[in-house]
Fold Kinase-like protein.
Amino acid sequence: MLARKRIRCSRRMKKEDVVKEAVHLRNLSYSHVVRGVGTYTLGEEVSILLYPAANYNLEAFLEECHIILSITAAHARMVSMLRDLRRFFQCITRTIHFVHTKLVKHMDIKPSNFLVHKRAGAHYTHDIFPTDFGISRSYDNIEEVETDSATACTRNYAAPEVVRQETRGFGADILSLGCVLRCSRLCVLRCSRQN
């Protein structure tokens, strides 16, 4: 099943900017990166077709872990979700490393920008994929990665240099990744203590 990301174009969001996101997805072929399988335009709206379609984002997955924790009958499901959540640490870290080796800065790493896809009939029941490469930037060489241009950010997950609009490189993504991993780790610890 495919997912569709619809983006309404305007003065702020030009079609060329949306196409850049689709190009990033096409160039980042990796097992834990959502694949852009097509784009189309309908009026002022551009749609990107993505695979796989996800059941949650990481933020919603963590919320569901908290809810299931309060239901004693859901113990087996909680154990499965915790096992997957622990595995996510490695998947997320390797994937962001891969993205950086392709000289791409994600620039908006946060729990809601990781999709969680439910798998049927496997030991691990969920996979995780970074998404929303809308403000990402790609570079031709490593020297270009350090930038200081203004960019949008989510303060809770942004590196201080991003918030202050100072020069930053891949380290800003890594700090954001650390915030996401910390958030996930706290969920694992909370759930483990109650089990």
Observations:
- The radius of gyration is 18 Å.
- Strands lie at 3-8, 35-42, 45-51, 56-57, 104-105, 114-118, 126-130, 137-138.
